[in-house]
Write a structure and sequence with these properties.
Elements (H helix, E strand, L loop, with lengths): L6 H7 L6 H7 L3 H6 L9 H22 L4 H11 L2 H10 L10 H5 L4 H32 L1
């Protein structure tokens, strides 16, 4: 497989990957591996797991430092900010979908609720990859925009 030119995506992300394999893994959906058993990387679910935790921590810290509101308010605000619909919207803004590696069936199934979750999970995987590649400062820069 010839690796696509990720520079336009990296520009939109505001992060140039030292380790391009992290970016490629973040873009790889589990379904892609069903049709490409020789693909050298695994799917993005572990990066998604890490990215979810990084995102929650950075957003939580920002809310905590910025607002003196009680815990219940901060929790509700975080939930409103960190959800599948918001993350899928960010994915669309970044034109992230064109780089995703999906099975043929998943690639055809646009505009579905399942696609929204794939995009949201992909953004979390990207956050995990940025965190591993550039540390907390890089992840904060991406999340804070």
């Amino acid at each position: 497989m010839e690796q696509p030119d990720f520079r336009p995506l990296e520009e939109r992300l505001g992060h140039t990957f030292r380790d391009q394999s992290l970016l490629l893994q973040a873009l790889t959906h589990r379904s892609y591996l069903n049709e490409h058993s020789d693909f050298p990387y695994t799917h993005n679910e572990r990066l998604e797991f890490l990215g979810d935790a990084v995102l929650e921590l950075i957003v939580t810290e920002h809310l905590y430092k910025t607002y003196a509101n009680p815990e219940g308010d901060l929790t509700n605000w975080r939930a409103a900010l960190v959800n599948a619909k918001t993350l899928a919207g960010i994915s669309n803004d970044l034109k992230f979908e064109e780089y995703l590696l999906l099975s043929k069936g998943e690639a055809r199934d646009k505009d579905s609720k399942a696609r929204m979750y794939i995009l949201a999970n992909g953004i979390e995987a990207i956050i995990g990859a940025i965190y591993l590649d550039g540390g907390t400062p890089a992840a904060e820069k991406f999340i804070h925009g």
